[in-house]
Amino acid sequence: MDTKSFWMPPIFHTFLRVAFWRPYAAAGVAWWWITRRKVRAANRLWAAASKAPFAYKEWLRAHEQEQLFYSTNPPQPKATITVAVHIAAGADPAAALLTFRSIMSQQGARWDLFLTGCVPKAMRDELGKCPRVTLLEKADLSELEALTRVLERTEGAWLIRLEPGTTMTKGAIGRYLGFIDRAMLEAEFQGAVFGDQDERLEDGTRKNPWLKPEWNEELFLAQDFISDACALPVAEARMCLARMEDEQSTFHSLLFELLCNQRIEVRHLPAVVSTTPEGHWQRSSTEWINMVERFVERQGGTVAPGPFGTAKVKWPLPQKLPMVSVIVPTRDRVELLSTCIEGVLKSTNYDNLEIIIVDNGSVEKSTLEYFQDITHDSRVKVVSWPRPYNYSEINNLGAAQAKGEYLCLLNNDIEIIDDSWLTEMMRYAVRTDAGAVGARLLYPDASIQHAGVVVGLGGAAGHAHRALADGEAGYFARPYCSHEATAVTAACLLVEKAKFDAIGGLDAESFPIAYNDTDLCLRLRVKGWHNYYAAQAKLVHHESKSRSNDFSPERLEGYMEELRQFQTRWGSETFSDPLHHCLLDRSSETYSLRFPSFSG
Question: Which pTM was predicted?
Answer without folding.
Answer: 0.90
